Every structure is written in C-alpha cells, then in structure tokens.
Amino acid sequence: MRRAELFWGPLLILLGVLFFLDQMGYLPGGALSWFLPFLVMAAGAWILIGGLQARKMSFETSEQFSVPLQEAREASLVIHHGVGEIRLQAGANPGDFLTGVSGPGMDKKIRLNDGKLEVEIDAGPNFVPFIGPDSGLWEYRLNEDVPVSIKVEAGASRLDFDLSDLRVTHFSFEGGASSVNLKLPARVENALIDLEAGAASIDVQVPDGVALRFRNKSTGSLDVDEARFPRRETGLYQSADYAAAQYHAEVNVDGGATSIRVH
Predict the structure, then answer these.
(1) 193: which strand partners?
(2) More confident residue, 148 or 62
(3) How deeply is 86 buried, as exposed, middle or buried, from its count of CB atoms within 10 A (0-12, 13-18, 19+)?
(4) Fewer CB atoms < 10 Å away: N or C end of the chain?
C-alpha cells in the first residue's frame, strides 16, 4: 500500500465521521472547522515520518518505472521538476534506456522518431505527503551506451547529476534557487554543458583525462582549480592540453548570484 493511500484513507474516514456527527447535531461549529486542524497536524506529522522512512529506502526497494530502449541509436531526455530532490546517474536495467523511481504527480511522454528515443518527464514536487515518490527522491538511471542529450528545468531543488559513465553529448540546466552537484562525462569526445541558474550553488567535478573549457557569466563567487584549468581571460578557464586531448567538455555558466566551484 502506498504512503498516499495510508495518508488519505484515515483522513477521509475521519471526515465522514465528522459529517455524520454534524448531521446528527452532535458537532458544534460544523465538520470542516473540526477537520482542518486534523488535516494540518496530520500533514506535518506525515512529512516528518516520511523523511525518516525515506532514509531507509533505496532505489532498488522503491516503486519503479522503465522506458525500454526499443533499439534506439540515440536519445533525448527532458525533466521538468518543481521543488525537491533529483538524482541522475548510469545504471538502467538491461534493455532499458531509463529506469526511474515512480510516484504520484509524475507524467511521462515517450516517442521513438527515426531511431531517436525522445523522453519527457514531468516530476512534481516531492516534499509533500501525497505527491512524489515514497523515498522522497526522484531518482533516474540511464543506459550508459546510448548517446543522449539531457535538459533539466527545476525550481528550488537539490540536484545530483553523475554523468561520468554516460555518453552525454549535451546537458542543459535551467533553475532557480538550487544546489547542483554535477560530475562531467568521462568518455565523451565533445560534451557541451549549459548551466543557467538564479541564486544557486553549483559544484562541477571534472574527471581525470577530460580537458575542460569553462566560461562564466555569473555575478556570484567563483572557485576554479587553476592548477588544472588556468585562466585565459576574465571568465574563461581552459586545460593546457585542450586542443590535443581525446575527451573534451565545454561548460558555460550564465546566472545571477551563483556560487560555483570547478575542480
């Protein structure tokens, strides 16, 4: 039984009892005036309990959905997210392009177009008791052998993107007050990364063997490991071996008061 059912079931029974007592004349003030305080208290308790339960859950024990690869040669993934937490990495089930955690408030669109698999996921917030996955975390695992472009649009979120084992050719992020941990692809010849955020904290990890070109238009703080990525000009940092390296990543950051670390 899902947590949402356990939350709403008892409350609906309570509401029915209150309406019955109101009709019988035993309930001064009306059923809703008694029910609303119970609803607020139950929601608060459920959020606290759900947070404790989520720590005990893993990706393997959560309710999942899958998107079969369907012999696609390449793929694109678009994720829309409101408020909460997302984790994305390699490790889809065999035969899948994507294996993810499911939950109320999520919608997905899938289309195979001339060998390209196009997937769009609308993931609702995951901090309320009746929307989102049981674990409290939207988690997605992708096929590591298929070239893929990824676009993420998020609000006030905590986001963990480990692209190191994925063949991500283009990754774009647009978000608000978010905390973003991003590990770049380790075996892609030319990976393009576009990050646009408001008051965000962005941590960019560059795997060994990947040459980086980093451009920053943000007005916030910036911490770049200049021993690996020397500064060429204002807002531009680049690996010394960028032209000769096998694997490249070009990262462009444009945003407001953003705190960025590149290492």
Answers:
(1) 171, 251
(2) 148
(3) buried
(4) N
